Amino acid sequence: MIELPIREPCDLCVAAREESWKIIDESEHTLTVINPWQFEVGQCCVITRRHVATLLDLSDQECGAILVSAKRVAEALVRAYRPLGILTFQNNGVFSGQETPHFHFHVVPRQKGSDWGIGPPQLATFDGAGRERGITHDAGEDARRRERVQVSAEQLAETVNLIRSNLPA
Ligand SMILES: [Zn+2]
């Protein structure tokens, strides 16, 4: 049984319901939202409109819609930031690094010199990521890393607008 993180209320449901300024793109089954932690400027997530936790909970329609949305925003990120590469990843369960119990597919423009600490490809071992059963949040250096990459709502909104303006028609 995959152990899920606990977060109440669900921050992604809150974003979908109450924080429309965070939404970059939308489709019938998905929303693309900005990630409040900008380890890379422009990093965002494609989320399901439904509150479901993992890949295992998705319908076939949602599976297809997620990759279509990811490709759309990847195209926008390439136009907006000229990254060295685009990293996509997705976590299922606390032991894979999942921190919010709502399906989200990361789309990240990689640039030189970033320092994530957590998340692929840096999540080399569970111990290294500071995870223990029943504990959903990371320990060690990650709190400090997060603090460093937390940006203001105004900056996030600017980033959202820039990416949105670069979406394919
Ligand atoms: Zn949710």
From TrEMBL:
Q: Which PROSITE patterns match?
A: HIT_2
Which residue spans adopt a coiled-coil conformation according to this UniProt entry?
none
Q: Where on the tree of life does the source sit, at the highest rank?
A: Bacteria
Q: Which SUPFAM superfamilies match?
A: HIT-like
Molecular functions (GO terms): catalytic activity
Q: Which GO terms describe its biological process?
A: nucleotide metabolic process
Stretches assigned to the HIT domain: 11-118
Histidine triad motif (motif): residue ranges: 102-106
Q: Where is the active site?
A: 104
Concerning Gene3D superfamilies, the annotation shows: HIT-like
Output this protein's name: HIT family protein
